[in-house]
Each structure stands twice: as C-alpha cells, then as structure tokens.
Write a structure and sequence with these properties.
- This protein is 63% helix and 0% strand.
- The protein is globular.
- It has 15 helices and no strands.
- With 381 residues, the chain is mainly α.
Length: 381
C-alpha cells in the first residue's frame, strides 16, 4: 500500500508550482521549495525501481515520462513551425529532450517548463551508476552534487547548464535515495535537526546576502536554493509519517489528491501555456498583480483550463503506466487489474517511498526568459 503522506506532498508541490507561476510570489519558494521536493520524491521512487528491477527500471521510467511530452509536442511543435520555427534536426529533441528543444519566441516562454524534463531525463539515465555508488559510499555520494555546485558557484568550474542542474537538483534526488534506504528515518533527532538547522541558516544567509532580481526567490540563487531545500527535505522526509489517515475522512479531498497525483505530469506540462496566454488577456480587464481578487481569478482560470486539458489527454499517463485508462482517476477499482511490474506498489516499509504511479515523472519550473512578466516566471521552484 502506498504512503498517502507522500501523495499529499506531491499534491502540495504541484499546486504550489502553478500558483507561483501565476502570482510570481517569491515567498512561496521559501515556504515550500516544491521543485527540490519533487526531485527528492522522484529519486526515492527511482531507487525503489532500481532495487526491484535493476537497470531495466530506466526504460520503464522513460516510458512513463515521454508519452505526455509527445502529446504536448504534437500540438505545439506544428504551431511553432507554422509561425517561424526553422525546420532542423534539433526538432527531434522534442521526442527525447537530452538538451533544450528548439522553440520560437512565444514557444520559448509557453514551453519553458521543458527544462525539467531534460534534467529528469539525465537524472534517470545517471541513476543506475549513482545508485551503485550510493550503496557503497552513501555519504560521499550524497555530498558530491553539493560540492559540484559550490565549485560552480565559486567560479572554480564553469559547468554547462545541465551539469549545473546536477549540482542544484541531483542532491535532492540523492536525498530521495537516502529516504528509500531508510537512512533519513534512522537519523536521531540529535543529528537530523542540527544538520537541517545548519543547512537552513547557511542557505538563508546566502540568499539574504545575494538577493536576485526578484528579491529572495530561490530560483535566482542556486547555492541558497540547494542548501535551504536540503534542510526542508531532511525534515519532511526524515520525519515523514507512515501515512495520512486523516485524508480518508474526506472523500472529496482524498479524490482530489489522487487525481492530481495521477495527472501530475499533465498538469505540469500544460499549466504554463495557459499562464502565458492568460496574462495579457487579464491585464486588459485590469486584474493587476497587486489585486488579490484578480490574482485569485487568474489562478482559478488556469486550474480550470488545465482541468479541461487533463480530461482530454490525461489518460495518456494511464497508458504510459500500463494502467486502465480513466477519465477521472481514483474511482472504484475493478476486481482484477493488470499490473505493471514497475508500477506495482510495494508494501510500505520504514524509509521506503511506495509507488503512487504518479510523479515518478515530474513537476517543476521553467527557465527564465528576458521580458517575462513577474507573474509568468518560468523558473518556478
């Protein structure tokens, strides 16, 4: 049985990402560093898959990730080609984004969230080797991404963007490995809390001392982001309960959490185009970013539009996971259901991250683009 507490964490992270992209509120990144949390959860799930299936887990993970991207590309790539995107072999990166796929001016903003799939793809490909190293030398393997980031930020090693992202987010992925192995849960409070506090103070001091263009926004500060997020992950996963029994007391809340988890990748991929499209339209009617009512309406509109798209194409996530396609997930189960070996949900155990069949795929922000409105920041965290 799966741990519903982890499902709640994913739900909160996804909702937070969407709200942040609409509002541009930098404080949200500090209150809940969603992107690092999502990478940590994905790392835990990847470790569980590698434990069960070995390197074959890589193919299964990619199978669950790519189809939803292909659906998005089938809509937007032809539209970009018709509006000026040059035809070149790089367009094929929309099928397997090991580098940033090409986009035209409007597509670069609306589809900027693709950077996360690029990073996720590399993390999955690197996981068999990283997991092998982690099992033999846990602490050095955990520290390696953070040391890489320090070297990059100090100017010692001018790394390319993908390697920089390894420094920023692969540390969270490795903390997911530690969560799966039970290492975080086994840490005593006398160790876990001082370490988390030290990381939070160090990260917070770096953020305050190096404010970005949007103030204290984690997405503008890689080192501060990594340290602050690591502290957050240590607490929310290191002291994670074995479940969330309170969730079942509300049938509506339980169903909403299930739906958002099972459609996490669809929500993530499609919300940014709507944020970008709605921003100039709602500005026309005077719903400024300083107007709470206007912001609330923006958020509701984006969620409503994403909900419609999810109804239309969200079932692709079921097909990718080899589940029975459902219009709205979480309904009564049939007595017999075909099980995907990689989608089977292991029994909950201390420190392990049971599968939820969801966000082993993703969620997260998008790269900044010059001239992007504050509420349409594409480097959401």
């Amino acid at each position: 049985m799966r741990n519903r507490y982890l499902d709640v964490l994913r739900f909160l992270a996804i909702v937070r990402v969407v709200v942040y992209h609409v509002t541009g509120w930098a404080t949200l990144t500090l209150v809940f560093p969603a992107m690092s949390v999502m990478f940590a959860l994905a790392g835990s799930l990847m470790a569980a898959s590698l434990t069960r299936s070995g390197p074959a887990a890589v193919g299964r993970r990619l199978r669950r990730l790519l189809p939803s991207l292909w659906v998005l590309a089938a809509v937007f790539v032809p539209a970009m080609l018709l509006s000026g995107l040059p035809v070149s072999p790089r367009v094929l990166l929309w099928l397997f984004p090991i580098a940033d796929p090409p986009a035209n001016d409007w597509g670069a903003l609306a589809l900027s969230i693709i950077w996360y799939l690029r990073d996720y793809l590399w993390f999955v490909l690197a996981s068999p080797v990283a997991f092998w190293l982690f099992r033999r030398a846990p602490l050095p393997t955990l520290l390696a991404p953070y040391l890489l980031l320090v070297a990059i930020e100090a100017g010692i090693y001018p790394a390319p963007p993908v390697l920089r992202e390894f420094g920023l987010y692969f540390g969270a992925w490795m903390l997911g490995f530690a969560h799966h192995a039970g290492m975080l849960r086994r840490l005593s409070g006398r160790v876990l809390y001082p370490v988390a506090l030290t990381l939070a103070v160090g990260g917070g001091a770096w953020i305050v001392g190096h404010p970005g263009p949007r103030g204290y926004d984690l997405n503008d500060n890689h080192l501060g982001n990594a340290l602050w997020s690591a502290a957050f992950i240590l607490i929310v996963l290191g002291r994670a309960p074995s479940g969330a029994a309170w969730l079942s007391r509300s049938q509506l809340a339980d169903r909403v959490v299930t739906v958002v988890n099972r459609r996490a990748l669809t929500v993530y991929l499609w919300h940014m185009p709507f944020v970008v499209a709605l921003t100039p339209l709602v500005d026309v009617v005077g719903w400024s970013h300083q107007d709470p009512l206007g912001l609330a309406i923006r958020v509701l509109l984006v969620f409503a539009l994403v909900g419609l798209v999810t109804l239309a194409v969200g079932w692709v996530e079921d097909v990718a996971a080899r589940r029975r396609p459902e219009l709205i997930p979480g309904g009564p189960r049939r007595p017999v259901e075909a099980a995907d070996p990689d989608g089977a949900e292991p029994r909950a155990r201390s420190g392990a991250a049971p599968r939820s069949g969801v966000l082993d795929q993703a969620v997260v922000p998008a790269q900044r683009s010059p001239g992007t409105p504050a509420a349409v920041d594409v480097n959401a965290g």
